[in-house]
Amino acid sequence: MYQPLRDLNIFDEAVDSVDLVDYLGRDQRFEAGCVLLTGTGIVPPSDFTLQDGDEVSIRIDGIGLLENPVRRHASRGESDHP
Questions:
Q1: Which 3 state secondary structure label does DSSP give 74?
Q2: How far is Cα 2 from Cα 47, in angstroms, rounded to an integer?
Q3: pLDDT of residue 72
Q4: Boundaries of every domain in the chain
Q5: What angle do CA 8, 14, 16 make, to 5 degrees?
């Protein structure tokens, strides 16, 4: 079942993206392909966890949709196969 945790657009940003890149770029040089991750400032519920089989997706208007499945990583001593 799809359960959105965030439904925001760039107009909901606390700081304009262009201003943020300008500010950060004053002290460092960005190389081609550099990605800046900023977050939303919204804290998920304390009982929130991602489970094996969940899917995390992000849609950016005019660019597209990125979807990533969540898979459980075997702990030490466990096999990846049943």
A1: coil
A2: 17
A3: 85
A4: 10-69
A5: 95
Q: Please tell me the distance from the alpha carbon of residue 1 to that of residue 74, in angstroms, as a whole number.
A: 25
H or E element, residue 68: strand 64-69
- Residues 75/60, Cβ–Cβ less than 8 Å: no
pLDDT mean by block of 10 residues, the chain; 82 residues: 69 75 90 78 78 86 86 73 57
Report the Cα–Cα distance between both ends of the chain, in Å, rounded: 26
Query: Is the CB of residue 80 less than 8 Å from the CB of residue 74?
Result: yes
Q: Classify burial at 56, counting beta carbons within 10 Å of its beta carbon; exposed 0-12, middle 13-18, buried 19 or more.
A: exposed
Q: How far apart are CA 49 and CA 14, in angstroms?
A: 26
In order, the DSSP letters of 7-46 are ---GGG-SS-HHHHHHHHTTTSPPPTT-------SPPPPT
